[in-house]
Amino acid sequence: MSASHAAPAQAPTRSRVTLQVNGSPRTLTVDHRATLLDVLREDLGLTGAKKGCDHGQCGACTVLVDGRRANSCLLLAVAQDGTEIITVEGLAAGGELHPVQQAFLDRDAYQCGYCTPGQLCSAVGLFAEAAAGHPSYVTDPTRPSGQGPVELTAEEIRERMSGNLCRCGAYPNIVAAVEDVTR
């Protein structure tokens, strides 16, 4: 084969990334097609985030990425290089449960528990969003955006948690648990 007809060089299919996971840097070589969820579960052994629908519709895989809620089944791990990832395993600190985790226990805000890790991470994320003044669909539209924290009423909590499905129907207790943390 002449030099002008050489086969094209094959692009790499794996890359080295460093993720800050639950406060610890983790450097891995990941397949470009691997989702963050699969890397967390299969490569790092963090099985709290669940593969529910694998289409970003149920919220069972919710984690915090740079402090914001994200469906880890929709994120390519290779694109997360340098980000801070908090999973449900990283919410507790110093041997103490995160206040949201404790409230879920106190309120019996789970049944089968499958969705609970995503619900917990989503709740932690919504606290930051509301504190930063980010409105939701049910926030009073006359309220200027970014003008202080949004009050987390039961209606606000239900709306902000609506991306996390619970097949068991523990929604009333989930809302009550999140409300408990806001007091």
From TrEMBL:
The keyword Metal-binding applies. Residues 15-91 form the 2Fe-2S ferredoxin-type domain. InterPro entries: 2Fe-2S-bd, 2Fe-2S-bd_dom_sf, 2Fe-2S_ferredoxin-like_sf, 2Fe-2S_ferredoxin-type, 2Fe2S_fd_BS, Aldehyde_Oxdr_Iron-Sulfur, Beta-grasp_dom_sf. The keyword Disulfide bond does not apply. It holds the Pfam family Fer2. Keywords: Iron, Metal-binding, Oxidoreductase. This is 2Fe-2S iron-sulfur cluster-binding protein. It comes from Streptomyces ficellus.
